[in-house]
Amino acid sequence: MTQDLTRPGLDPFAANDVMLQRIGQAIENGQPLSEGQATFMRHELTEADLMDQGMPYEQAHDRALTMHPPGRNYDPDVIDQFPEFGPWWRNMNGLGPR
User: Fold this and answer.
1) Is residue 97, in this structure, part of any structural domain at all?
2) pLDDT tens, per residue, the chain with 98 residues
3) C-alpha to C-alpha distances, 56 to 5, 10, 72, 92, nearest whole angstrom
4) How far is CA 65 from CA 27, 32, 49, 73, in A?
5) Residue 55 lies in a domain
């Protein structure tokens, strides 16, 4: 999953780093993943698999988006922490306006 997010041509995004850290800690501590963490992991692994099969990133990303509820692939507090997540993301996660 980490390799998918560090492929050449992809822009780094600090929210992804936070999610990877949380997933790693949960696994290390034997704790269940949150809905956002499980969905993030499923999204990234689907995207990586499709790209490994030769699909361009944009298409792989769009296909991975169909594998989970819209906007639910980050923890809500991560969405709240990063202003890059706009009103649509906030609304999809039950967060009010900034």
Assistant:
1) no
2) 556 555 655 668 899 999 999 999 999 999 999 999 999 999 999 999 999 999 999 999 999 999 999 999 999 999 999 999 999 999 999 999 98
3) 14, 12, 23, 27
4) 24, 22, 14, 9
5) yes
According to the model, what pLDDT value does residue 71 have?
A: 92
- The pair of structure tokens assigned to 35 is 């809905």
- Residue 19 domain flag: yes
Can you give the pTM of this predicted structure? 0.85
> Domain range for residue 12?
2-92
Q: What is the 3-state secondary structure (H, E, C) of the chain?
A: CHHHHCCCCCCCCHHHHHHHHHHHHHHHCCCCCCHHHHHHHHHHHHHHHHHHCCCCHHHHHHHHHCCCCCCCCCCHHHHHHCCCCCHHHHHHCCCCCC
Which amino acid belongs to residue 91?
N
Number of domains composing the chain: 1
Q: Considering the domain boundaries, does residue 98 fall inside one?
A: no
